[in-house]
Amino acid sequence: SELLLYSNVFTSDKVLEWYFKSLNEETNCIEFKCLNPKLSLMCLGEKHPGSLLVSSSSFHHIATQELGIPFTVAMETQDVLPRGNILIHVITTGPEGVELLGKYGQRGTNSYIKALGQIIEDHMRAIPNGVLVFVSSYSFLNTFKDKLQETGYWSRITSLKACYLEGRHQQDLMVQRFKSDCLTDKGAALFVVFKGKLSDSLDLPDKFCRGVLLVGIPYHNKKDPMYQAKEQYLSQNKRVPFRNWYDYDAMRSVTQAIERCVHHRADYGAAVLVDSRYNLAYIQEYLPTWIKHNLRIVPCAHSPDLVRRFFRRHDRAVLANVTSVVTATTTGTARIVRAVVKLCWWLGLHVAKGAETLAVQMYEFLKRK
């Protein structure tokens, strides 16, 4: 059962939602939801600051309208990442021309599930180390796995990566095992939920997350009491149209998911957005500039090969950096390490992944000698 209460204890602008939700037969939870983000800045107003600087990677003019604060100066920085460190593909149709439209009434069809299974399988082959697969809800995550098992795609995906699924409760041990598997030649895939516990709390730099696959757009269920309360609040307040806020809230989660594969300036990764709606202008409007600059609409048949080339190029750059490191040693030592690196590269990409570690260990051994 749910109990939904609205409180106007402070003012009409400070509407709080208080709802009680039964998690199971033994445990009850009382959750407070703030419908007005301006409340979080009230304590600053009492101190009368001369200036207020707000920074966010997913900030948008809708957020400033919702805050109700007139920002006299607004700016968006250029790309922080070096050009070529992020690859972002949008796939709108599946292998057999099936439109990839992940709406509630269409995402359970066999043709949609098979198309997703093929796309995920192809990209698991192309992306090394760790991969995150984002879906819209916990219920769809479980249904999605069952459908993949029925079609045979789940066994094929698990043969390529060690696969883990996010649950609703604490999963520290599972995350540790996922990270360990990311460092193996096989790699690992973690299926998570947009706005879920793991998607917001995990720190996965470098090899722990070389790629993200975004299945659908994470719109919230409009029957959710919290979103019904938000819609009612915005319609009364008339500060932001609810439809605009609804789109912005979903795309803010998309931005945060894409950022998972690039944690720092030297990091690199690939993001694959699997839904035809990502090609719509009003959807792309809510993405930051650095994502829009790198976003490309790509046929599903071409995307895996382009992703594979992207990582090969970066693997070559890593090997080149390793080779340059050892030039500080004797000429003979550098020649030996270069030969080892070239041999590993010639034997294949999977062997080349260990070339960096091998070369560094050789360098450290020779330096001690």
How would the blueprint of this fold be written?
Elements (H helix, E strand, L loop, with lengths): L1 E6 L8 E7 L5 E7 L7 H5 L14 H7 L18 E6 L18 H17 L3 E6 L2 H14 L1 H8 L1 E4 L6 H11 L5 E6 L3 H5 L9 E5 L9 H13 L4 H17 L10 E6 L6 H4 L4 H6 E3 L5 H23 L5 H17 L1 H4 L2 H14 L1
Parallel strand pairs: 4-9, 4-10, 5-7, 5-8, 6-7, 8-9
Antiparallel strand pairs: 1-2, 2-3
Helix pairs in contact: 3-4, 3-5, 3-12, 12-15, 13-15
Tell me about this structure.
There is one protein chain. Helix 6 links the parallel strand 6 and strand 7. With 369 residues, the protein is of the alpha/beta class. The longest helix has 23 residues, at 303-325. Helix 3 crosses helix 4 (138-151) and helix 13 (331-347) runs antiparallel to helix 15. Mean pLDDT is 79; it is low at 1-25 and 346-353. 45% of the residues lie in helices and 15% in strands. The strands form 2 sheets. The chain has a 7-stranded parallel beta sheet, with helices on both faces. The protein has a 3-stranded antiparallel beta sheet with strand order 1-2-3, covered by helices on one side. The termini are far apart. 32% of the residues are buried. The chain has helices spanning 42-46, 61-67, 110-126, 138-151, 153-160, 172-182, 197-201, 225-237, 242-258, 281-284, 289-294, 303-325, 331-347, 349-352, 355-368; strands spanning 2-7, 16-22, 28-34, 86-91, 130-135, 162-165, 188-193, 211-215, 269-274, 295-297. The protein contains 15 helices and 10 strands.
